[in-house]
Amino acid sequence: MTNGSRIAVDAMGGDEGLAVMLAGVARARRQFEGRGLDLRFILVGDEAAITEGLKSHPNLTAHSEIVHAPGVVGSSDKPSQAIRRAKTTSMGVAIDMVKQGRAAAAVSSGNTGALMAMAKLSLRTMPGIDRPALAAMLPSLGENDVVVLDLGANTECTARNLVQFAVMGAAYARTTLELQSPRVALLNIGSEDQKGTDEIRDAAQTLRLATHLPMTFTGFIEGDRLSRGEVDVIVCDGFSGNIALKTAEGTARFVADLLRRAFKSSMRSKIGFLISKPATDLLRHHLDPNNHNGAVFLGLNGLVLKSHGGANEIGVATAIGVAAKMVRDDLTRRIAEDLGNFEAKAA
Amino acid sequence: MTNGSRIAVDAMGGDEGLAVMLAGVARARRQFEGRGLDLRFILVGDEAAITEGLKSHPNLTAHSEIVHAPGVVGSSDKPSQAIRRAKTTSMGVAIDMVKQGRAAAAVSSGNTGALMAMAKLSLRTMPGIDRPALAAMLPSLGENDVVVLDLGANTECTARNLVQFAVMGAAYARTTLELQSPRVALLNIGSEDQKGTDEIRDAAQTLRLATHLPMTFTGFIEGDRLSRGEVDVIVCDGFSGNIALKTAEGTARFVADLLRRAFKSSMRSKIGFLISKPATDLLRHHLDPNNHNGAVFLGLNGLVLKSHGGANEIGVATAIGVAAKMVRDDLTRRIAEDLGNFEAKAA
């Protein structure tokens, strides 16, 4: 991360409130300091409340400035309503810090739809991009995590949207996972050419021909293979992506609940559980959504990250860490370059 | 199950071949015999191969007749092609047994798209139903399994399709789960009214007003709550349903793989694993897709069930068992009654 660059944090967003946001930011700062990196923050929201909250985090205070915003976007506010009062809300002002160049990225745990609408209106999409997409890294059995997009920013998508998502997702994987030619697949309900919607088939057709791009298009992937580590980028519309992401989260929790019940079912299994606890703790850590928090809107002229509304202190710190790495890697510029090459060769 | 009624089995469908199909049928027969029920079968496919295969299952032979069909539907055959040679294939002839009234249900592990197309063409949809839907029971943390439909028969759906699926899914839950007024929800990417596609919002609007139906519409449900046991029926288009079902399967396997790795990571955890093995075996049994096999096409004038292509002997037996229970419960008539009431009151 370039010294002196700052991350703007919507201190008021999220279901867990200001205290958890500040604790998460403070934790991220400590972690990066331990690795010799100096993170600095612009904390946006109710100035009095933030000042009060910072009393528990003196080290964070020294590395932060506060920017006052009186309003908060509610979790059930419609994006169209939220946009109208953008300039008075902590979310809108945090994004504005990026637009003004005062911050290198903005992070919010607030309402996803409002965040997307405000970010798009304020920062605008990159040349060649019709709509931004929400992307995140999911754990896999492979050597690296897998980039999945769109995760809910666009309920319905055209073939052209999906192709743009593929190019941006590949650029993200090239930058963050340091892969030369990421393997990219389209999420579908079968692996055969004729499966799925017209949009998906048309997108596949375009991607198959785009051999000049720094990616390897591998065709369709089904829901049961998302975590196998067979591809590096999975592209889908926001509806399917949101269903897949949440179903994966819910199923992991379901299996963990069943496991807990199984371990409690007899004295013998309780003893086995105690003995193998270090192993199951490792598993719990690996599956905890807080350790995979931080989704980014790709395709905007600036970095805006969405942290899970229910994230705890660790989750918020994870999202801040993702933002810091993207600033360090200059992700926005790298994506713009890849898009430029795509457009130039396609023309 | 009414004595004398038969289940037609597509003996040639499925990735695992004839031997697994016959072993699965034989296993189901033994299990039901143990409970005092006499299952009888029509085995459809290559007569010589079935006769040879039955030599390993003398008890099944005594409860089966063979109907010859020379052709097989391949797993990558297009439905439109498969339909043209329906009458010569094991899949098409098995369905025809239901149409002729010789069998009370047909079960196939073959190509889902072809099975759907053939079943619809041969048996036709019930009055008031535009399209059949593929429904299955998924495990949950609640007192009963949860009915999910559509799981892939219809890639895109109108609001009207979704409403019909809700009525059929509720009838299925009333019959099979013996619930008076099943809780029905629409799968969506948020729980607020304005979330999702027009189709989903319109379907919700209709279902909210349909208070005369023997179901309780609870609104939207997100992917992370599918297995919580909060609802009895989850309704979605076939694309989302397929993504959710397969993502859940894949995630359960992913967690199990991580658990295996964790248990192998040290001597201590290996010992803990051995001690708690009965508990984890129970979990594995609970999550094994073979123990939840057997999806049914709802909305046809006859019972056609889809067994997973990769099902093993236990999986095939599970699907046969699901078919036998539907025959016993007279599911088709019960759904027709509920649809009749829906139409009558809506008119």
TrEMBL record, chains A, B:
Subcellular compartments: Cytoplasm
Transmembrane spans: none
One annotated GO biological process: phospholipid biosynthetic process
UniProt key word Kinase: no
GO molecular function terms attached to this record: phosphate:acyl-[acyl carrier protein] acyltransferase activity
UniProt GO cellular component terms: cytoplasm
SUPFAM superfamilies: Isocitrate/Isopropylmalate dehydrogenase-like
Swiss-Prot/TrEMBL catalytic activity: a fatty acyl-[ACP] + phosphate = an acyl phosphate + holo-[ACP]
Keyword NADP found: no
Pathway: Lipid metabolism; phospholipid metabolism
Enzyme class: transferase
Keywords, ordered alphabetically: Acyltransferase, Cytoplasm, Lipid biosynthesis, Lipid metabolism, Phospholipid biosynthesis, Phospholipid metabolism, Transferase
Primary localization: cytoplasm
EC number annotated for this UniProt entry: 2.3.1.274
Known role: Catalyzes the reversible formation of acyl-phosphate (acyl-PO(4)) from acyl-[acyl-carrier-protein] (acyl-ACP). This enzyme utilizes acyl-ACP as fatty acyl donor, but not acyl-CoA.
Subunit structure, as described in the record: Homodimer. Probably interacts with PlsY.
HAMAP family: PlsX (MF_00019)
Protein name: Phosphate acyltransferase
